[in-house]
Amino acid sequence: MKTPPSLDADQARDRLRELTVVDVRTPGEYASGHLPGALNIPLDELDRAVPALQEAAGRGELLMVCQSGGRSVNACARLAAHGVPALTLSGGTDDWAARGHELARPEGAPAREVWAMERQVRFGAGSLVLTGLALGLWVHPAFQLLSAAIAGGLVFSALTNTCGMAVALGKLPYNRAKVPGSDIDTTLARLREASS
Fold it and tell me: pLDDT band for position 173 (50/70/90)?
């Protein structure tokens, strides 16, 4: 996979007004803090948003954003397959915040911060591996197959640059927090209105 062009946090901040910023994290992560003016189109909804993103790319550059940069690179590759050019924010919102740049929160967002998806995946995978090992030692050795399955899934995830566990975790209620005006239909309508 070809690495998409990127901007670092300082470059993005200087050009923020001329970019259409798309945050591909889950609604819960987005509500925890995002780049000012960013629209939330979760990675699992990206294919549905391609026509609106094609229109937006015709007006100016798209900047894809996630927590650390991995999902935004994936989003750029998926858009490139549809002929839609996009930039990625290197280091994601983590680097943006680390450089002291402002993070916006939607009005009505839950007060509780949602862990970044990468952190949720590490916690989930680690917990399942430890559970498989413990049950394998204390109950029956066959439970160690759980640990082996998780290890295999992690290798597959690295080789394909996908993550089934992240997709599954992204569907949990706390990752799908309902924030007024941030559902995918409203976001796509806002994206199309900007093109008028």
Answer: confident
